[in-house]
């Protein structure tokens, strides 16, 4: 642009490298000192390194960075370094060169802010942003310029300041623009609410067009001299504003379109995808600059508009690359800008101090900014849905920071035409330092003190996404109904247009097909879960915990945490002789459980990683493949769980009814239902047992389905009493599991349906504690669906064995919780004669028969009655209220 | 608190929609609005204008429904809490949205109800299975009492961080 070319052109790194007059070489050389040849890039690298290292140092102390914005620290550092350089080299070197600034340092920052601009928010507030950017900047320039001129006319300034109205207007135009770099640097640390941020930040980006035009127009006016300005020049000035702003935007849109289109075809060259993003955005910047349009606008809009399509087209890895590269570039640019700003300030040769000018400028920019904001807000609030209140206005006025753009522009002034350039430079530096340091330091306390609404960052939830979409549709519909073509109407139109034409044109077919925002959020949530799962993978316990990370997790998480607790507490000292037995069986169970877990989550040996090198492709390495596999597993698992819940839901209503009944009953005497309880709880093992056996947790879903229907059946067939147990049972069943096999249970609990591989181990079949699997299964079933068995026969068998394990002394020893679980079952047997026990079951006769047979045949069956007294006393001693299980559940939730 | 000019404007809109010229709008009158036909939730929103069992809505009813979308003004926030809650309160706005989901009016969004709305809102490219998992996850996210449905309380809770006042308001009805 003109403004850039009219200043002194300094190559960024000092004198160009040119080898000195070559002395005749004294024979062959081993080494040669070639500083000259690498000087420029070497200096650039050195400064970037210094700045980055400084950043690390700043962040060593959390205290400092939480109070002082990084930009302040960098400026101060720059001042210090500048002082050192001045002292060593006797002249100021390494200044912030306007060319370097506009061509290399500014574009990354603008691209970053454009690309990551929350577009919805931006366009929601586009009216306010444009008003502040255009009207506000115009207002600031003219008022500041005129007021300073008035000050000059009043004779308050040093007579050395040779400047007329046009000079002051020129100065006003460059000093009044809010600077995107400074605003971003400070506001990012302040975390005001999004609306406020987007307005200030959007203004700082979009005011570039106004600044460019004003600067150019006044610059040419100054050069022409007041005498030669004609009316037509003013008209030209106005026209050029529209040309520059709209032209810049158009360039940006054009390149956004190109960029999106190009990324559509990069499927086979994924590795250079990120390059296109940077390259085209930069070319957009340069193209706009070349025809002296607003380059900042071009890049901003290029970033905003291309993002949607580019993100859909490029691969996940490219997306990450783009994100990080962009952030890295922007962050280092910002660092260098502030540091060099500090260093530039020590160059006193450019300075000419005038107190009146400096103070006057400071006062006027603050005053007129505030007045401008208040006036504009007053008008805007008449149109805004959510008015900007007083506090917002204060922050907006105070947040109008000036920065490197102003400095670069003032350096670009032609000293021969603008006589007061030295004064302007000094003033600009003071203003920039004042706004960045003083306002930057105080804005945080101010925001806290004023209790400005802060932004609350939270992960998007599926519900929010879904319902907000619904809101959009609702509003669009209401606008249609009232016949008002407002914001929602146009947004709706745009979305339809985008869907119909743009997306089809600019997006890959595959990407387009899969494109849906709700699905995207769902997908992202799943990825997040999967990643956290993978992060914690390896550790079995955590795997168990995270088996259903995104699930309602009230159940799964609580249960597993409880199991953890149990596991920890369960290992307490046991004085009983049987302890050995217990220990052994527990270990065995643990082994079995471990086996399952390993079978499920260990990865098969893989091919050796081939050490192939390719510049064009990054071959997915082992780790990655494993991640993918885990991810796939996780997803599969989730799907299964979803399925099961789905089925659960079908019956949920009737269940809820039953539950309620049960609850009512629960207050009654608990003894009555006990016998039934056994029925319920035992058969409930069955589905688990079964699932477990055929294993495939993939199969769980179908099994569960039948099961749940079965449950209803059984519910209805049996009396309400059973329902009564319904609730209690759930909790107890869990507990049972826990107690029965404290540690291994906890391991297997959640993941058992998922992780356990389809094939039961051979050993397992032979192992006597098969029953323990049933236990596990019970747990699972109760957790997910509260199911009752499908296959009664099997169920009964299973239940018997599980009973055995419960009743077995070792189990009792494991701990208080343990006993609690056993209690219901045993209690039942205690309250009723052992012989009666079976007859009172309301199960199908064959079931009871088989159970009887089983109990006869198994020694444990006889063992039960013997245990009764023990359990009975225990029960009395403990005096557990019937509501206990429910309380437990609450506690669990609390624990989570 | 709707200004006079707005009422006249809405009334003229009302009469222009009223093709039968009988002072009431029927469903057909609404369905004649072209943009509404392509709005995925169009029918649901039309239904929201009609109270139960009615198939006509007069101007008063029309305004009552639209009043839900009036922005909340500052002076309304501080108004005495005793009076009846204004139609444009946050909870009424939410309730309006909630009713769009809740077809059977049992004050719960069941999975099926959610699925229906989802089906309307997402493109055809999403498979039923995917939709189902979205619905499941949505419910699980919101469901607090374990009934596998979203009650209004849960609905409010899950949207507590959303600026409903802004996202369910229209400037025109200021």
Automatic annotation (TrEMBL), chain A:
Basic residues: compositionally biased ranges: 654-666
Query: Where, by residue number, does the polypeptide cross the bilayer?
Result: 72-89, 101-117, 129-148, 168-187, 238-262, 355-375, 395-416, 422-443
**At the top level of its lineage, which domain of life is listed?**
Eukaryota
Q: How does it sit in the membrane?
A: Multi-pass membrane protein
**Positions of the region Disordered?**
1-24, 653-694, 844-896
Single GO molecular function: sodium:proton antiporter activity
- What range(s) does the Cation/H+ exchanger transmembrane domain occupy? 48-449
Which GO biological process annotations does it have? Answer: regulation of intracellular pH; sodium ion import across plasma membrane
InterPro entries this protein is in? Cation/H_exchanger_CPA1, Cation/H_exchanger_TM, Na/H_exchanger_3/5, NaH_exchanger
Keyword set, alphabetical order:
Antiport, Cell membrane, Endosome, Ion transport, Membrane, Sodium, Sodium transport, Transmembrane, Transmembrane helix, Transport
Query: Of which family is this protein a member?
Result: Belongs to the monovalent cation:proton antiporter 1 (CPA1) transporter (TC 2.A.36) family.
Descriptive protein name: Sodium/hydrogen exchanger
Question: What is the native source organism of this protein?
Answer: Penelope pileata
What high-level taxonomic lineage is stated for the organism? Eukaryota, Metazoa, Chordata, Craniata, Vertebrata
TrEMBL record, chain B:
Per UniProt, residues of the EF-hand domain are: 5-40, 89-124, 130-165
Q: What is the lineage of its organism?
A: Eukaryota, Metazoa, Chordata, Craniata, Vertebrata
CC per GO annotation: cytoplasm; nucleus; plasma membrane
- Check the record and name the PANTHER family matching this protein: EG:114D9.1 PROTEIN-RELATED (PTHR46002)
Q: Which GO terms describe its molecular function?
A: calcium ion binding
One Pfam family this sequence matches: EF-hand_7
Record InterPro entries: Calcineurin_B_homologous, EF-hand-dom_pair, EF_Hand_1_Ca_BS, EF_hand_dom
Similarity comment: Belongs to the calcineurin regulatory subunit family. CHP subfamily.
Name the keywords, alphabetized. Calcium, Cell membrane, Cytoplasm, Lipoprotein, Membrane, Metal-binding, Myristate, Nucleus, Phosphoprotein, Protein transport, Repeat, Transport
GO terms of biological process kind: protein transport
Main localization (coarse)? membrane
Q: This chain belongs to which protein, by name?
A: CHP1 protein
What are the subcellular locations of this protein? Cell membrane; Cytoplasm; Nucleus
């Amino acid at each position: 642009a003109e403004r850039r070319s009219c200043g002194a052109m300094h190559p960024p790194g000092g004198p160009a490298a040119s080898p000195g007059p070559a002395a005749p070489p004294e024979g062959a050389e081993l080494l040669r000192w070639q500083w000259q040849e690498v000087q420029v890039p070497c200096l650039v690298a050195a400064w970037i390194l210094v700045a980055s290292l400084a950043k690390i140092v700043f962040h060593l102390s959390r205290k400092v960075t939480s109070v002082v914005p990084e930009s302040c620290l960098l400026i101060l550092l720059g001042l210090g370094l500048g002082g050192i350089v001045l002292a060593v080299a006797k002249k100021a070197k390494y200044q912030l060169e306007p060319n370097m600034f506009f061509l290399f340092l500014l574009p990354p920052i603008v691209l970053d802010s454009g690309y990551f601009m929350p577009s919805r928010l931006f366009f929601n507030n586009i009216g306010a942003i444009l008003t502040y950017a255009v009207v506000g900047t115009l207002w600031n320039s003219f008022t500041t310029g005129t007021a300073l001129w008035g000050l000059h006319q009043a004779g308050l300034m040093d007579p050395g300041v040779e400047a007329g109205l046009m000079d002051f207007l020129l100065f006003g135009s460059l000093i009044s623009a809010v600077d995107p770099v400074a605003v971003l640097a400070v506001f990012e640390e302040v975390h005001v609410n999004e609306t406020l941020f987007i307005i200030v930040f959007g203004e700082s980006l979009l005011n570039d067009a106004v600044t460019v035009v004003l600067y150019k127009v006044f610059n040419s006016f100054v050069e022409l001299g007041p005498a030669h300005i004609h009316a037509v020049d003013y008209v030209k000035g106005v026209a050029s504003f529209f040309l520059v702003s709209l032209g810049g935007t158009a360039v940006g849109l054009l390149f956004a379109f190109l960029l999106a289109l190009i990324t559509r075809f990069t499927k086979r060259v994924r590795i250079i995808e990120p390059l296109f993003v940077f390259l085209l955005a930069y070319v957009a910047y340069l193209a706009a600059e070349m025809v002296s349009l607003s380059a900042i606008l071009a890049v901003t809009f290029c970033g905003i508009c291309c993002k949607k399509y580019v993100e859909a087209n490029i691969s996940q890895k490219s997306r990450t690359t783009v994100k990080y590269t962009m952030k890295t570039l922007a962050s280092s640019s910002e660092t260098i800008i502030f540091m060099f700003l500090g260093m530039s300030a020590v160059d006193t040769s450019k300075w000419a101090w005038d107190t009146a000018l400096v103070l006057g400028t400071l006062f006027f920019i603050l005053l007129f900014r505030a007045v401008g904001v208040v006036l504009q807000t007053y008008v805007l609030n008449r149109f805004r849905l959510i008015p900007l209140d007083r506090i917002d206005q204060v922050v907006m006025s105070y947040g109008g920071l000036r920065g490197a753009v102003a400095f670069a522009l003032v350096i670009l002034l032609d000293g021969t035409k603008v006589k007061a350039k030295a004064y302007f430079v000094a003033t600009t530096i003071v203003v920039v330092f004042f706004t960045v340091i003083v306002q930057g330091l105080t804005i945080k306390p101010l925001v806290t003190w004023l209790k400005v609404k802060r932004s609350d960052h939270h992960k998007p939830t599926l519900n929010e996404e879904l319902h907000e979409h619904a809101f959009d549709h609702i509003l669009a519909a209401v606008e249609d109904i009232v016949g008002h073509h407002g914001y929602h109407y146009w947004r709706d139109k745009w979305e339809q247009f985008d869907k119909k034409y743009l997306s089809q044109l600019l997006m890959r077919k595959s990407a387009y097909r899969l494109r849906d925002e709700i699905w995207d959020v769902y997908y992202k949530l799943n990825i997040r879960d999967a990643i956290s799962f993978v992060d914690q993978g390896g550790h079995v316990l955590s795997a168990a915990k995270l088996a259903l990370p995104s699930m309602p997790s009230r159940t799964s998480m609580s249960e597993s945490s409880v199991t953890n607790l149990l596991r920890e507490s369960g290992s307490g000292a046991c004085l009983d002789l049987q302890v050995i037995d217990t220990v052994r069986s527990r270990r065995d169970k643990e082994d079995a459980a471990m086996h399952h877990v390993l079978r499920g989550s260990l990865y098969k040996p893989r091919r050796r990683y081939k050490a192939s090198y390719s510049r064009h492709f990054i071959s997915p390495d082992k780790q990655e493949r494993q991640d993918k596999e885990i991810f796939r597993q996780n997803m599969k698992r989730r799907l299964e769980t979803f399925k099961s819940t789905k089925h659960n839901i079908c019956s949920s209503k009737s269940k809820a009814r039953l539950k309620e009944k049960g609850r009512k009953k629960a207050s009654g005497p608990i003894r009555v239902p006990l016998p039934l309880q056994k029925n319920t709880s035992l058969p409930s093992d069955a589905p688990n047992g079964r699932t477990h056996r055929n294993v495939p947790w993939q199969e769980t879903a179908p099994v569960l389905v039948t099961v749940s229907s079965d449950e209803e059946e059984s519910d209805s067939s049996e009396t309400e009493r059973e329902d009564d147990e319904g609730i209690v049972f759930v909790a107890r069943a869990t507990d049972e599991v826990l107690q029965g096999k404290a540690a291994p249970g906890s391991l297997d609990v959640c993941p058992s349906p998922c992780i356990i591989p389809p094939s039961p181990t051979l050993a397992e079949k032979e192992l006597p504690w098969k029953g323990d699997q049933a236990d596990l299964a019970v747990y699972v079933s109760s957790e997910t669906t509260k199911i009752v068995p499908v296959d009664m026969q099997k169920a009964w068998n299973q239940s018997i064995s599980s009973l055995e394990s419960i009743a077995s002394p070792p189990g009792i020893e494991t701990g208080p919780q343990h006993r609690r679980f056993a209690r219901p079952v045993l209690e039942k047997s205690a309250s009723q004669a052992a012989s009666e026990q079976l007859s009172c079951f309301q199960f199908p006769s064959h079931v009871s028969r088989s159970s009887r047979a089983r109990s006869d045949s198994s020694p444990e069956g006889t063992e039960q009655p013997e245990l009764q007294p023990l359990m009975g006393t225990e029960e009395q001693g403990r005096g557990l209220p019937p509501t206990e299980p429910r309380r437990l559940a609450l506690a669990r939730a609390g624990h989570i | 608190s709707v200004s006079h000019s707005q009422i006249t404007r809405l009334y003229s809109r009302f009469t222009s929609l009223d093709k039968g010229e009988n002072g009431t709008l029927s469903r057909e009158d609404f369905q004649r609005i072209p943009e509404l036909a392509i709005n995925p939730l169009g029918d649901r929103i039309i239904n929201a204008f009609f109270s139960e069992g009615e198939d006509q809505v007069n101007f008063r009813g029309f305004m009552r429904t639209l009043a839900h979308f009036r922005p909340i003004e500052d002076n309304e926030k501080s108004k005495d809490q005793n009076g009846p809650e204004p139609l444009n309160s946050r909870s009424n706005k939410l309730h309006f949205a909630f009713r769009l989901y809740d077809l059977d009016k049992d004050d719960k969004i069941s999975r099926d109800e959610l699925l229906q709305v989802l089906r309307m809102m997402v493109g055809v490219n999403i498979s039923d299975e995917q939709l189902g998992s979205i619905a499941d996850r949505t419910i699980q996210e919101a469901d607090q009492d374990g009934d596998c449905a979203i009650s209004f309380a849960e609905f409010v809770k899950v949207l507590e961080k959303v600026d409903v006042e802004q996202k369910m308001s229209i400037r025109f009805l200021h």
